[in-house]
Amino acid sequence: MSAEADKLKTDILAAIAAAEDAAALEAVRVGALGKKGTVSALLKTLGGMSAEERQTNGPLFNALRDAVSEAIAEKKTTIDAAALNARLAEETLDMTLPVATDPQFEGRIHPVSQVMEEIAAIFADMGFDVAEGPDIESGFYNFTALNIPEAHPARQMHDTFYLNAEEDGEALLLRTHTSPVQVRTMQNGQADNSGPPFRFIAPGRTYRCDSDQTHTPMFHQVEGLVVDETTHMGHLKYTLEAFLAAFFEVSDISIRFRPSYFPFTEPSMEIDMPCRRDGDRLIVGEGDDWMEIGGSGMVNPHVLRHACIDADKYQGFAFGMGIDRLAMLKYGAPDLRAFFEADLRWLKHYGFLPIDVPGLAGGLSNKSLAGKPGTGQ
Ligand code: DAH
């Protein structure tokens, strides 16, 4: 009987040694120690033996079972360790992969929004409010109230987008400039007794049927209006120069007024800013060249009267500038159409991080942080 046990032991230990993985080892275990396993079968034979036989074979068979169990447990440890090592060698963690960016560093503020904020911050510092008006305007506010009557040729100059006529025959339109906010805001001020005097800017979208490298059907303007009893052209010139110096972050700027014509101002002037070219680069704020950046003038008394303001007592100045143009000049984006193409690559390059909020104290364009606009680096 002991010979049988020895042979079984040799076979099983050989099978354990040959088992290459956990499944093979489990098969050996079941074959030996399972209910119908060879070792279990041998143990069962003890029941049919004489007391004497049992006394010799019992310890032998039990020793066989223990030896097999032990050998299996040992082999299992080896197999598990090998499997773990294989997994560790196979699974790699690529430390060079970028960590997912926090959303607040992913999004960008559009240069036009940034510039609008900068403009508002500068004028707020000079005591200006920010006023708003609707994009869809009536002919009255867009033209008539601004001293551009029905048959006036200036109406044709504006390439207006008209909506379908209302039942009363009047066609609303997309405002062609921010000037309609002048009369709207003055009327509101009269109604709630907040003015005159008035001192506000009105930035916003404007629309004209026009499209080429420097014109888009939708663009942005900022209107400015100051109305008080003694407001004069010196105030206008100072205000514009102070604004431009702050906006372009130069110590001072001398602007040039060129005679012009706008129905809503008298006299009317174009605003020219000094500039110079350095190879391909355009440097603004200094130099012998001039570039036009907007229109201005003393508010025509007809406009004040449309807002029911006593034009014998009050007078004022107004100006209007293109915001997109200011953004292009300050941040060096060459093509206006790219501003409105919603190309994420463009926005990533020219846009601004939301945490770089412009302010006069922290720096309007965060020059200290931003070597390149928008990158914050
Ligand atoms: N509204 C004019 C335009 O779009 C710009 C302008 C000129 C606005 C003179 C003004 C102004 O307030 O005084 O061409």
Automatic annotation (TrEMBL):
Molecular function per GO: ATP binding; magnesium ion binding; phenylalanine-tRNA ligase activity; tRNA binding
Signal sequence interval, chain numbering: none
E.C. designation(s): 6.1.1.20
GO biological process, one term: phenylalanyl-tRNA aminoacylation
Record keyword ATP-binding present: yes
Main localisation: cytoplasm
CDD domains linked: PheRS_alpha_core
InterPro entries the UniProt entry points to: aa-tRNA-synth_II, aa-tRNA-synth_II/BPL/LPL, Phe-tRNA-synth_IIc_asu, Phe-tRNA_ligase_II_N, Phe_tRNA_ligase_alpha1_bac, Phenylalanyl-tRNA_Synthase, tRNA-bd_arm
Cofactor: Mg(2+)
UniProt cross-references to Pfam families, sorted A to Z: Phe_tRNA-synt_N, tRNA-synt_2d
Catalytic activity: tRNA(Phe) + L-phenylalanine + ATP = L-phenylalanyl-tRNA(Phe) + AMP + diphosphate + H(+)
Enzyme class: ligase
Residues that hold Mg(2+) according to the record: E266
Regions annotated as coiled coil: none
Domain Aminoacyl-transfer RNA synthetases class-II family profile: residue ranges: 113-354
An annotated GO cellular component: cytoplasm
UniProt keyword terms in alphabetical order: Aminoacyl-tRNA synthetase, ATP-binding, Cytoplasm, Ligase, Magnesium, Metal-binding, Nucleotide-binding, Protein biosynthesis
Cofactor note: Binds 2 magnesium ions per tetramer.
Gene3D superfamilies in UniProt: Bira Bifunctional Protein, Domain 2 (3.30.930.10)
Subunit structure: Tetramer of two alpha and two beta subunits.
Protein family according to the UniProt entry: Belongs to the class-II aminoacyl-tRNA synthetase family. Phe-tRNA synthetase alpha subunit type 1 subfamily.
Protein's name according to its UniProt entry: Phenylalanine--tRNA ligase alpha subunit
Organism: PS1 clade bacterium
